[in-house]
């Protein structure tokens, strides 16, 4: 009898009594400290962030926020974008799935990398819409302040609040290779602090990073579990145009992870995972002309999910 995996959807259903749908948000003015030069330049080697965020494929703003910004001339525009995206997604999800409850996901770039006053307004606004039961905030461990964390603790008294940290790898050598801009200890300490405050944490892991073998990937997964994360997202590393990783790939200095290898790592990572840690994602990809490799990351999402479900079932898991 296959073992039913504990998914994030199942967690939300058990808590709210019905399906809760994530609404991905991308707002103008947000960037990252390893893009603007604060900790590094150029961003992570694999990152062309617009490829993860269709809402940002239009022309980007020239003004970007950071933790020390004194003003935010884009706030009104951000509030308009927030409302437009939430209402449009709600309409679509309600029509297709009869959705009534939603979790607003601040997805693109680093969504705590802005002055506290801006974050306070945006988070409160997101929570004010009908049917929104909480927010999930994608960020970096070096870009979230104690003030923001304490505010999230207050919000968590009446709302579902999640902080999503990009762990990627626990190996500092790998983090340097991908120009991450912080070390593994920084992530560990941020997760520990966030958990001690009672907040929910989701950790992102990337399999197939430069120079990593299966043992290293699994060690990153197992160590992340021990750090106390509540949920996990597994991603394969894929190569998109106009990134530093694309240059490495073209010069044959980087070989993307193949599907069978990814499946093998994913299954072993799931076997190591404690039951209480929910799974939010088991793959990632992009279905447009920016993808260079691997080919399978360009397949339609449902096709990849279907293939992975089959492999997981063969391994004794139902996803």
Write the layout of secondary structure elements.
Elements: E1 3-4, H1 8-16, E2 20-25, H2 75-97, E3 101-106, H3 116-127, E4 132-139, H4 146-155, E5 160-168, H5 172-177, H6 184-196, E6 200-207, H7 214-226, E7 231-236, E8 239-240, H8 244-250, H9 259-272, E9 278-281, E10 291-293, H10 301-314, E11 317-318
Parallel strand pairs: 1-11, 2-3, 3-4, 4-5, 5-6, 6-7, 7-9
Antiparallel strand pairs: 8-10
Helix pairs in contact: 2-3, 3-4, 7-9
Brief sketch in words of this structure:
This protein has 319 residues and is an alpha/beta fold. The protein has a single domain (3-318), classed as TIM Barrel (Alpha-Beta Barrel).
Characterize the structure shown.
The chain has helices at residues 8-16, 75-97, 116-127, 146-155, 172-177, 184-196, 214-226, 244-250, 259-272, 301-314, and strands at 3-4, 20-25, 101-106, 132-139, 160-168, 200-207, 231-236, 239-240, 278-281, 291-293, 317-318. With 319 residues, the protein is α/β, with parallel strands linked by helices. It has a single domain (3-318), classed as TIM Barrel. The strands form three sheets. Strands 2-3-4-5-6-7-9 form a seven-stranded parallel beta sheet, sandwiched between helices. A two-stranded parallel sheet has the order 1-11. Helix 2 packs parallel to helix 3 (116-127) and helix 3 (116-127) packs parallel to helix 4. The longest helix is centred in the N-terminal third of the chain and has 23 residues, at 75-97. The model has no long low-confidence stretch (mean pLDDT 95).
